[in-house]
Amino acid sequence: MRIGLLTDGGYPYATGESRLWCDRLVRGLPQHEFDLFALSRSAHQEDQGWVRLPHQVSRVRTAPLWTPEDGTLRGSGERGLLARLVTGGEQSYGRRERRRFSACLTALATAICTPDEAGTEAGTGPGAELFAEGLYGLAELARECGGLHLALRSETTVRILEAACRAHGTGRTVQSATVPDHLAFAAELERALRPLSLDWYDQESLGAVDLCHAASGGAAALPGLLAKRFFGVPLLVTEHGVPLRAHFLAASDAPTPYGAPVRALLAGFHGRLATEVYRQAAIVTPGNTHVRRWQQRCGADPAKQRTVYPGMAAERFGPVGEDAERFGTAGEADGAGGPDTLVWVGRIEPAKDLIALLHAFAEVRRAEPGARLRIFGAPAPGEEGATHLAHCKALAAQLFPDEATGAHTEGVSPVTFEEIGGPEIPDLAEAYGAGGVIVLSSVVEGFPVSLVEAMFCGRATVSTDVGAVVEVIGGTGLVVPPRNPKALADACVALLRDPARRARLGAAARARALELFTVEQNLAAFRGIYLELMSHTPVRREADTVDAHGAPLPFATPPEARLLGHWTQPGAHLLPPPDPDAPVGVAAVPSWAAVPGARLPDRPGEPEPQHAREPEPEGVCAVAAGPAGDGDA
Length: 633
Fold this sequence. Notes:
The chain is α/β, with parallel strands linked by helices. The chain contains 22 helices and twelve strands. It has helices at about 20-30, 45, 80-85, 95-115, 125-145, 155-165, 170-175, 180-190, 220-230, 245-255, 260-280, 290-295, 320-325, 355-365, 385-400, 430, 450-455, 470-475, 485-495, 500-515, 520-535, 620-625; strands at about 1-10, 35-40, 55-65, 210-215, 235-240, 285, 340-345, 370-375, 415-420, 435-440, 460-465, 480. It has a six-stranded parallel sheet with strand order 3-2-1-4-5-6, with helices on both faces. Helix 2 (about 45) links the parallel strand 2 (about 35-40) and strand 3. Helix 4 runs parallel beside helix 6 (about 155-165) and helix 10 (about 245-255) runs antiparallel to helix 11 (about 260-280).
C-alpha cells in the first residue's frame, strides 16, 4: 500500500526529533511505498539537508513554516482591504469569497474564544462542531482560491478576533486582550494555518495515498485532516510527546513571552485542534501511558488508542549490557568509572535540574566519600544553554573544591563535565558503562530515552517521578519525587552500598528493555495497525482509475477482472472430439457452447444440460447459475 507520511520539523531532514523513528519505520517496512509530506521549521534545518532516503520513498513534498508572512498589508482604499486582497495563487477574492472567509473565520474564532461549559467532555460540545465548521470552511476556500496567507493577516481578521474576544461567554483573560494582543495572535494563527494553503490536496498528491500517517499532532496532522475531508483517506496519528503541553511550555519560555490573553487564545486554538485530530483519526498511537492520558483528556476515544513504545536500536548497547551480565555486578569490570561512580547523560538545560543533582551529590559524598559523579552532555543551543552550563560548573566548583591526596599532588574534583566522542568515552554506550548507577534528575520529561539506553546497558537507575518514567522503569529501578535532593541522595547511597541489588536491578532492566523497547517491537506493532486500517478501508478509489480530467486510465483495471472464471477457455478434457467432416482450420464448437447462457459441464462425461428455461443475463452470475435441481451451487 502507499503510505503518506506527514512530518513536522523532522524526517527527511538531517535534524529533528522524529528523524530516527521515521527512518526506522520506512526502512523496516519495505513491503509498503511511502510518500513524504514534510514541514520544515527553520532555515538552519533546511541548510543541513536530508538524510539518505531508502528506495521505499517514492517522492517527497516539502513546505516551510518558518518563512515570514507572504506579502504585506496593502492599502485601505475606498473598496476596503479584502476587495484588493490577493491570495497566494494570485487570484482575487470576490464578494462571495469575502463573505465565506468572514463567516468561517468568525466560527473558528468563536470556538477558540468561548470555552465549553463545565462538565462537557472534550469533542462533544458545540464548540468542537463550530471549530470544525470554520477550519474546513477555510480549507475549502484556500483550495479554491489558492491560499489564505494575506487574508489571515488582514485588518478584517483582527476585527473578527476582537469581536470574538469581547463576545458574551468568553473568559476575563480573553476579554482583556488589547489590539497588540489581537495582532500577535493573528500572526500566530496565520503560521499555524499555513498547511491549509499548500498545494498537496489533489488527486496526484494526498489523494493518491491509501493511508496518512502523521508522525505528530498539530501542524503535521492538518494535511491528514484535509486528506480525509477531501478524499476519504484514513488518518493514523502517532505522538511520542504531548504537542499541546509543548505549546504551553514554549509560550511561557519564549524570549519575549506573550501576555496572558495571547497565551489563552493559543491554548484555545491548539486544544480545539487536538480534539479535532483525535476525533477524525482512525487510530491514535501514543508512545506511552502518560501521553495516552493527555490524549484522553483532549477528547481521544480510548477504543481508538493503541500504545506503541518508540523502538530503539538495542545493538548499540549490546556489548556493555552483555559485559554487565557476564560479570554479574554492573560496573565492576569498568576501569574508567567503577561501581562507586554515578553517571548522568543528557542535554544540559534547566528542565534536567542538574542543580538538584549537584546538591544531592553533596549528600552522597558525606555518606560515601569515594563516590564520583560524571556528567556527559552538551548544553542546549543558544546563549541560554551556555549560561546554564557555566552556572552548573560554578556550583560544582563551589560545592566540591579540588581535592588533593597529598601535599605535592594536584587536586581533582569528584564532579566532571564531559562530552561524548573523546578517546576515553568514544560513544554513548561507553558513557553508560562508565559507572555503576545511572541518575535522571529531570523535572520535565516525556519518554525518558536515556533511561531506556541505560536499561539496555544493564545498569541500575535512580530517577525522578516525571513523565513516563514509572511506566518505563516498571520496578527495575528506584524512583523518587522531583526537586527533592535528599530523596535522590538516599536512593543513590542505597544502591552504591549494595552491589548485589545493583546487579539484580540491572539484569531485570535489560530484560525489560529487550522485551518492550526494541525496533522490532515497534515495527511489528505498526505492521499490524496498517493491516487493520486497510481491512476497514478499501484501497482502490476513483483516483486510481481515472486521470485528472476524469477520463479512464488505460490498464487501470487488470484484464483478469473481466474474466468469467479462472480459465479463459475450457480445458482439453472438456473439448469434444474433432469432427472429421469439419473444414480444415475451423474448430468444432460443442453444442452446449452455442446456446446463450449455457453452463459448462463440470466433469468429463457429464451430460450436456437441458436448456428448458430462458437464458440468464450475461456475466459471472449467468455462468455460475444452472438449472434448478442440478446440485450445483
